[in-house]
Amino acid sequence: YPRRHAPETQLSEFNLTEIEAMLGSYTKVLFVRDPFQRLISAFMQGMGSSPSFSSFVQDILDGGEHDASETWKPLVSLCRPCLVQYDYVVVFGFLRQELGHMLRRAGLPAGSVLPEFTDTQVRWTYSWLSEQMFSELSLQQKKQLSRFYRWDLSAFPFSSSLLTD
């Protein structure tokens, strides 16, 4: 599909036959991250104009899913895992393990092409930061966030997410 295929081409611009042929010919990899960690990252990068994390979260909740930025929009609405059969789902925080496995499955030497990852430090830092940020939220905000991300939490293995409680 070179005539229309470019990095910015959306899958929805193709007809159903073309979509099925493309998806059948590619190895499909989905990289996912705990939704609460995505919110923290967006806040820390200054993606909102809110002075506190709690008000940033409230702005997102007030805006709803339809007005949400792709940065914090639920992943299920962005990547359609129920429609697209992904070959691999790679969870942030386990990149070294997951990518090593994928490379071995592809018949490539895993250790020679992987960059250095700091997964262990990142997981510990986000765990600590998540607990601090989570404590700033009201019980109502926590419940609303869990509802906002309910499909992500049920579709992906975020077992240690603070939002699953």
UniProtKB/TrEMBL annotation:
GO terms for molecular function: sulfotransferase activity. Its main location: Golgi. It comes from the Eukaryota. Its EC number is 2.8.2.-. Keywords: Carbohydrate metabolism, Glycoprotein, Golgi apparatus, Membrane, Signal-anchor, Transferase, Transmembrane, Transmembrane helix. It is a single-pass type II membrane protein. It is found in: Golgi apparatus membrane. Belongs to the sulfotransferase 2 family. This is Carbohydrate sulfotransferase. It comes from Dromas ardeola. The lineage of its organism: Eukaryota, Metazoa, Chordata, Craniata, Vertebrata.
